[in-house]
Write a structure and sequence with these properties.
heterotrimer; A mainly alpha (507); B alpha+beta (616); C alpha/beta (294); A: 507 residues; mainly alpha; two-stranded antiparallel ribbon; 2 strands; 72% helix; flat; B: 4 domains; 4-stranded antiparallel beta sheet; 49% helix; globular
Chain lengths: 507, 616, 294
């Protein structure tokens, strides 16, 4: 081939390459972070698409060369490679080869760094499933932390995935703070300099760390990150972690002002949670859990206004309905509830329902100039009723009222003292100082009496009552044991007789 | 975390029967081949001429195989080496270097068993690269020669086809040897350097120690303290400084040398000098005892169930993996290993029993402590049993319990181990779980006598020798296929043999219809129609046909499975990575297996080449 | 001339078959030949006539479908005979990654030559074929002519008694062709037997003692070159300085003797004439031509 043609050919090649390279640059340019808060360049088409579909990392500094190399090295067979690795991981797990399992999971995450399920599933695998395979709690702890480290790595790859942050908070809260090994785990966790780094000793409690991470999660959500689950739940997490913290330090023997302060903090946070605008199911609008009581007042006022528009109407309507009842129904209704037969109970319920007077009904019966106002009022009441209904169900989901009450009575000096006395009684019992134990238990129970008297709600509704009864019932059982060991009879009447009535000891 | 597939086979016992099977197979193969050749010749040339031609062929073959000239063979091997260089073997080496250079990205020295991870990595990487290279080189060479007609100038010289085949095998083996040698050396350095690290002490720890030494100067009975080192490679060590163990000279300079605890599979030795005034000097050794080649003596495992009756296996506690079976605590259940051929001169310092146990709790128990177990020895002849000690279990950790040569039992007897307990070289070791309702899990290789430690470097070399054998075997296959197949097809065939050898287990399972999802065709149908592997396919005609075809395929796979070598026998990666010595017997077995395949492959290759018209 | 037969073929037949074993080409049909010690024997024929097939059958690179080829009295498949044979293939099929020295050394090793002999012979041959300057260069860089020369050197490495040369002059320039022919004659003079095949008539005519002409796998003509060209009842008159009158006189003399003057021109390459004639005849009347051996 003559040199001129060769040169020409080369030039054609170069000529073809230049637009290709330019195209590649336009498509593939990574985003560059701006200097100190200044907006950086958004990057090429691919980078923007990645941003749009929330496939971080999109900025140059965040790209992990290993991961990118591995992805390239599979020549588009990433899915196949990942499947093989999953298979391998399962096999290693079955054969209890933890070293290789962990190594495989590392590789796996490098293949699919933006596949959130990999991080979630495999970190759970490490922290929960692998961890319990070990008999020694120190080994278990080690694997819990490995799972957390794994999640942390996932968070670095997926900065917009709030769920990963939430998972890590949950692992700390649940696995370290609530598992069977919590005593050991929490101890190891506090000593774990490597996990905490520069975090001050006082903040190294698993509950506080969990709270911190729950808050981080909310931060990511507020920044526009992706989250799964209901805001009602995940927004309640930090305050709940604070409650857990307060509870835990008391279990471990910290009382007095410190305990009260933490409970107060929990109460405040719970209140703040109640003041948040939360989405209301089945509606575009929002609700605040704290609004329940004021709304109820409002409703009462509106109902009174409606009644005033035509006094006595309500009673009249009710009487009409009563008159329309069948004899049998009326008889059932007249029978005291405890004496009703099964059939009568049904009838009574029917009757109760049919003699209810609705606000719409009441308003429609009003004639004359007040009619319009009455209908308006009835409509407002209905709206409030709807909101109250939503509030009731939302509150039920997070057990809002119980925790509000709990934070409130726990920060009372008497409660803290009661708990301290019981705690010291338990210690005395463990040291078989029965006399001291008896004295301390009795002091504690006395204090509890005072708390219960101040907070009758503790034994009011079914839900709260059973929690209170369980909590105190165990203390009472211990007290009973002390007395038994001392060969003394259980006092009658007992100071917490009302609690005992609701207590069903677990077998 | 145990070596599940171990080979406690005695080479001397193995070689006899194995050789017999091999001889039968080879003779059958040769006779079959000769008959075929004869039949073919008779069909083509008539009975007389055909028989004559077949006899001639056999005669020539015998001459070709027996009169191989080493010089010509070496010349051909030399050519093969030059050709391999031309084919840029160097590239494979470069790939290896790149992989090793960037391996730090994948390998976490902070993992629990970094040595295992590193060793596994280098051994697997090398073996895959070298085997792949062997496939390509060996399968492509001869077909390329035939295609380029260069073979014409060779076979028209007084060269026997046997020499061509042998020269190829030797040449590639030589290339592979050099390559593997280099890779092994680099790998060794890589592993040592990757795992190398030292620890120091933080200012706070130094302060604590300074206080201790100040006290020790005033008071001889000062208690030692445990200090943590700094964190390197994701771990710290705890070091117990004990003033009582230090030497003090006239100037009041204290010197000590202590070992750290074991973390991530290694320990360090720290030497230090405490001057009367000024900074303490600590010298930390590189990690030690992380690269091991333990020489285990395996026993035979049997079980007793909770009622004390003999049982083949213990209890399954719900594990998918059935390697370990479990014995119930607080009952008569026991796991019993019987050791043979023990001599007292083997164990001057007592019987080192090393074990890795599974622990399964049915209730929480005391989670601060391990489940207690008991270790006893029993004389198999007299049935006399002596309790050695109770220990606390540590799951997934290798625990060394040395049974002293002389010890006192609980009831005050003094037992001389070899005199009282070993009968005719035999000894039983009984393992029981003491805590009621808790379980110990044990598998065959979980408890062994750690007779001694062999040299790790030598073991490393043996591990690479295993790869070398695999490479030679693949080269043999490659050259064999290349004598009658074209290049790409020969690569496929050789690659197929390699895959089949590597996944011989799977092949077997497939041939025995034990794999979910059925045979190849059924699997393809499931793949295309996206069906679950466990659902039954609809009973259509297609399904029946597919299943019939699969049945036929399974027969083939069964046949192939029987003919292919089991590569796992040649792979010692696990031994090296898990720190077990590769015994010479095991190595000899592997060598025999390789020869058993390469020998016939060579003869077959010769026959194919000889029967082939090279100019066509 | 010695009567010792070096190569003998007895009704040597080769049929190429396709993958399914069906007959495709009958490349060689019952060839009977013998080549005697010390002669240069030429196989002549157009492309695809069976020349190369014959050589490959003699070398054992192909197996005969029928008949046999004997070299030094041994069957073609026997490797021992190769020790006395040199073979220059049609194109020099050599390892392109070796240089000239390495190439010759490699082939020398195949003959198990002792190191000293090997060195000397490699040196001599490189000199003989004129590749001293290029002896350290890889063959991949060689021109066609150079490749041919190293190919020849390779064929001579064992100082063979019998040389089989497949198209020895292809790829050579006129000077190279001359040198090659001289070399062939020189080798014959050393007492070597040479079997060469070519489609170049001048090669054959210039060097061969005897030739066989093949066409479509069949032997068409066999004999001494000189007698083959003489046997016709044809007389060639060559003269210079003849006047027109003298030519006329000669014509009359011929007519007087009852003969007919075909032409009275400058002579043509007569082998070519013969060759073309045979080929034409063969195409017109397919079948084997039985002819006495000269």
């Amino acid at each position: 081939m003559n040199p001129r043609r060769l040169l020409l050919r080369k030039m054609i090649y170069v000529g073809l390459m230049i637009p290709l390279v330019l195209l590649l640059a336009v498509l593939g340019m990574p985003a560059a972070p701006g200097a100190k808060g200044a907006p950086g360049s958004p990057g090429g088409v691919l980078a923007r698409l990645r941003e749009q579909h929330e496939l971080s990392p999109t900025t140059l500094g965040d790209i992990d060369p290993t991961s990118e190399t591995l992805k390239l090295a599979t020549l588009g067979l990433r899915g196949v490679a990942s499947t093989i690795l999953w298979e391998k991981a399962n096999n290693y797990k079955a054969k209890k080869d933890w070293t290789n399992l962990a190594a495989t999971l590392e590789q796996l995450s490098k293949f699919q760094p933006n596949f959130v399920s990999v991080w979630r599933f495999q970190s759970w695998n490490l922290s929960y499933n692998v961890s319990v395979e070990f008999d020694d709690y120190r080994d278990r702890y080690h694997w819990v932390i490995r799972g957390l480290h794994y999640l942390d790595k996932g968070i670095r790859y997926n900065r917009n995935e709030a769920i990963l942050v939430w998972d890590s908070a949950y692992f700390v809260q649940h696995k370290i703070g609530r598992s069977d090994e919590r005593v050991q785990f929490r101890r190891l966790f506090k000593q774990d300099d490597d996990f905490h780094g520069s975090r001050p000793m006082a903040r190294r409690d698993s509950w506080l760390v969990a709270k911190e991470r729950f808050e981080d999660c909310l931060e990511v959500v507020d920044r526009g990150g992706r989250m799964r689950g209901s805001p009602l739940l995940y927004r309640s997490n930090p305050a709940m972690a604070q409650m857990g913290y307060a509870e835990a330090i008391e279990k471990e023997g910290t009382f007095g002002e410190v305990a009260r302060r933490e409970w107060k903090q929990a109460g405040d946070e719970w209140h703040a949670f109640g003041a948040l605008d939360l989405p209301r199911t089945g509606s575009e609008s929002t609700i605040r859990l704290n609004d329940y009581e004021p709304r109820q007042e409002e409703r009462k006022a509106l109902a009174a206004q409606l009644d005033e528009l035509e006094p006595g109407l309500r009673q009249r309507l009710r009487d009409e309905k009563l008159a329309a009842l069948t004899d049998e129904q009326r008889k059932a209704l007249d029978t005291p509830p405890e004496k009703r037969s099964t059939r009568q109970m049904d009838l009574a319920a029917q009757a109760e329902a049919s003699i209810q007077v609705g606000h719409q009904e009441q308003a429609r019966r009003i004639r004359g100039e007040n009619r319009k106002k009455a209908l308006e009022l009835a409509k407002q009441i209905d709206l409030i009723d709807d909101e109250l209904h939503s509030l009731r169900s939302s509150r039920g989901i997070v057990n809002f009222e119980y925790w509000r009450l709990r934070a409130a009575f726990e920060q009372e000096a008497d409660t803290v003292d009661a708990r301290e006395a019981v705690y010291r009684g338990q210690q005395a019992l463990a040291e078989t100082d029965l006399v001291a134990a008896k004295r301390l238990y009795e002091a504690g129970l006395l204090k509890w009496r005072q708390v219960l008297d101040r907070y009758p709600q503790l034994l009011a509704d079914e839900n709260t009552r059973s929690i209170t009864a369980d909590d105190l019932g165990e203390v009472i059982d211990e007290y009973r044991r002390v007395l038994k060991l001392l060969d003394e009879p259980f006092p009658d009447p007992f100071i917490l007789q009302d609690v005992l009535e609701h207590y069903q000891p677990s077998i | 975390m145990v070596l599940e597939t171990f080979h406690a086979v005695n080479f001397a016992e193995w070689i006899g029967p194995a050789a017999k099977v091999w001889l039968i197979a080879v003779v059958a193969l040769l006779v079959g081949f000769a008959l075929l050749r004869w039949l073919f010749a008779v069909l083509r040339q008539g009975p007389a001429a055909g028989t004559l031609s077949a006899l001639n062929f056999l005669w020539a073959a015998a001459a070709d195989l027996l009169l191989i000239s080493p010089r010509r063979t070496l010349a051909l091997a030399g050519l093969t080496i030059k050709e391999s260089m031309r084919r840029r073997v160097v590239i494979v080496f470069a790939v290896f270097l790149i992989l090793v250079a960037f391996a730090g990205w994948f390998l976490d020295p902070g993992s629990n068993q970094p040595a295992r991870l590193y060793l596994s990595f280098v051994l697997t990487t090398t073996s895959y690269l070298v085997l792949l290279l062997a496939v390509f080189l060996s399968a492509l060479s001869l077909p390329a020669d035939i295609r380029n007609h260069t073979i014409h100038t060779v076979v028209t010289k007084p060269v026997r086809p046997s020499e061509i085949v042998l020269g190829r095998v030797l040449g590639f083996a030589a290339v592979g040897t050099v390559l593997l040698g280099l890779m092994a050396a680099i790998s060794y350095v890589f592993v040592l350097r990757g795992l190398d690290h030292k620890h120091d002490f933080s200012a706070a720890a130094r302060e604590q120690l300074a206080v201790m030494w100040r006290d020790a100067r005033r008071n001889d009975s000062t208690q030692g303290i445990a200090v943590s080192t700094d964190r390197v490679q994701n771990h710290r060590h705890t070091v117990f400084f004990d003033p009582a163990q230090e030497t003090v000279d006239e100037q009041g300079v204290r010197r000590g040398a202590i070992r750290t605890d074991t973390e991530n599979g290694h320990e360090h030795e720290i030497q230090y000098v405490v001057p009367a005034e000024g900074e303490v000097q600590f010298v930390c050794s590189p990690p030690e005892n992380h690269l091991l080649a333990r020489v285990p003596i395996y026993g035979k495992l049997r079980f007793k169930d909770r009622a004390g009756k003999d049982a083949d296996k213990g209890v399954n506690v719900g594990d998918e993996w059935t390697y370990r079976s479990y014995i119930q605590g607080g009952s008569l259940a026991a796991a019993i290993w019987t050791f043979e051929n023990l001599r007292d001169d083997q164990f001057p310092d007592g019987l080192p029993v090393e074990m890795t146990l599974g622990v399964f709790r049915t209730h929480k128990g005391d989670i601060e402590k391990g489940v207690p177990g008991s270790l006893s020895v029993r004389n198999p002849a007299t049935g006399d049993e002596a309790h050695v000690r109770t220990f606390a279990s540590r799951e997934f950790q290798t625990d060394l319990q040395v049974i002293p040569l002389e010890f006192q039992t609980g009831d005050g007897r003094t037992i001389n181990l070899f005199r009282d307990m070993v009968a005719d070289g035999k000894l039983e070791v009984w393992l029981r779980c003491v805590a009621p309702q808790q379980y110990f899990g044990a598998g065959q290789a979980d408890l062994y006598l750690r007779a001694r430690d062999a040299s790790f470097a030598l073991n490393f070399v043996k591990g690479f020798a295993g790869i070398w054998l695999q490479m030679v075997m693949i080269t043999g296959f490659g050259v064999l296929f290349s004598t009658f197949l074209s290049g790409p097809i020969a690569i496929l065939a050789t690659g197929g043999a390699l895959l089949g050898g590597l996944f011989s287990d799977f092949l077997y399972q497939l041939s025995q219809h034990k794999v979910f999802g059925g045979g190849p065709i059924e699997a393809m149908i499931r793949l295309v129609t996206q069906q679950n592997v466990v659902t039954e396919l609809p009973p259509t005609a297609q399904t029946t046909v597919a299943k019939m075809l699969d049945k036929a395929a399974e027969q083939w796979m069964w046949l192939i499975w029987h003919m292919l070598p089991d590569f796992r026998v040649l792979s010692f990666s696990d031994h090296v990575a898990y720190g077990f010595d590769i015994s010479w017997g095991l190595l000899a077995m592997a060598v025999c297996q390789t020869l058993a395949y390469v020998g016939p492959a060579f003869v077959l290759g010769y026959v194919f080449l000889k029967s082939r018209e090279l100019a066509q | 001339m010695s009567a010792e037969v070096v190569i003998e073929t007895r009704s040597l037949t080769k049929v190429y078959r396709d993958f399914w074993g069906r007959r495709k080409v009958e490349a060689l049909k019952a060839l009977d030949l013998d080549v005697r010690r010390g002669e240069i024997f030429g196989l002549l024929g157009p492309n695809g006539s069976g020349k190369t097939t014959t050589i490959k059958l003699i070398l054992g690179l192909l197996f005969p479908t029928n008949g046999e080829a004997l070299v030094f009295g041994r069957p073609a498949g026997d490797v021992e005979k190769n020790a006395r044979i040199g073979y220059l293939p049609e194109e020099s099929y050599l390892y392109r990654f070796l240089n000239a020295e390495e190439t010759l050394d490699f082939y020398a090793r195949l003959f198990r030559l002792p190191r000293a002999v090997r060195r000397q012979r490699v040196y001599d041959l490189i000199e003989q074929v004129g590749l001293q300057r290029a002896k350290r260069r890889q063959l991949r860089e060689y021109s066609k002519g150079m490749t041919r020369r190293i190919g020849l050197a390779q064929a001579l490495i064992n100082d063979p008694e019998l040389l089989l040369l497949d198209e020895p002059t292809t790829g050579l320039d006129p000077i190279g062709i001359r040198e090659m022919k001289d070399l062939i004659l020189h080798l014959r003079d050393q007492g070597k037997t040479i079997l060469m095949c070519s489609h170049r008539l001048d090669d054959v005519q210039d060097v061969c003692d005897r030739i066989a002409i093949l066409h479509q796998g069949e032997l068409k003509e066999l004999g001494r070159v000189d007698s083959l060209l003489k046997v016709r009842d044809m007389t060639e008159i060559r003269a210079t300085g003849l006047s027109e009158e003298a030519k006329e006189e000669i014509r009359q003399v011929i007519a007087r003797h009852g003969a007919q003057l075909l032409s009275c021109d400058n002579p043509t390459a007569t082998l070519e004439e013969l060759f073309v004639k045979i080929i034409r005849e063969s195409e017109e009347h397919p079948g084997r031509r039985v002819r006495g051996v000269a």
